[in-house]
Specification:
The chain is mainly α. It contains 3 helices and no strands. The protein has a single domain, classed as Up-down Bundle (Methane Monooxygenase Hydroxylase, Chain G, domain 1), CATH 1.20.58.
Length: 99
């Protein structure tokens, strides 16, 4: 027989309850932005037409910049991701022009 589920302790003070509500709202907002980023990244990686890659890269960079401004990702992480994506697109463009 399974053990009964433990009940989570809830905050007791008014400020702790408010802090919890704020953290839930922020978590939802952060997850929304992360989903936007992942969706744009998938579109970039699936793209077969090399002429559309720079346009998609600009869109992903824009999303990452906004995430950095909103402190969803640290600004150094944003810079690292943008650099890696730019290098990835450059390699794909070079490979497409070689064939």
């Amino acid at each position: 027989m399974a053990a009964p589920a433990k009940k989570k302790k809830s905050a007791r003070s008014k400020t702790a309850l408010k802090r919890h509500r704020k953290s839930l709202r922020r978590r939802a907002r952060n997850l929304l932005w992360k989903a936007k980023y992942k969706q744009a990244l998938r579109a970039l990686r699936k793209e077969t037409d090399s002429t559309r890659l720079p346009e998609l890269l600009r869109q992903v960079h824009s999303i990452l910049d906004r995430m950095g401004r909103r402190n969803i990702f640290h600004r150094n992480k944003v810079a690292r991701l943008k650099s890696r994506l730019a290098r990835y697109v450059a390699q794909r463009m070079a490979g497409a022009s070689a064939t």
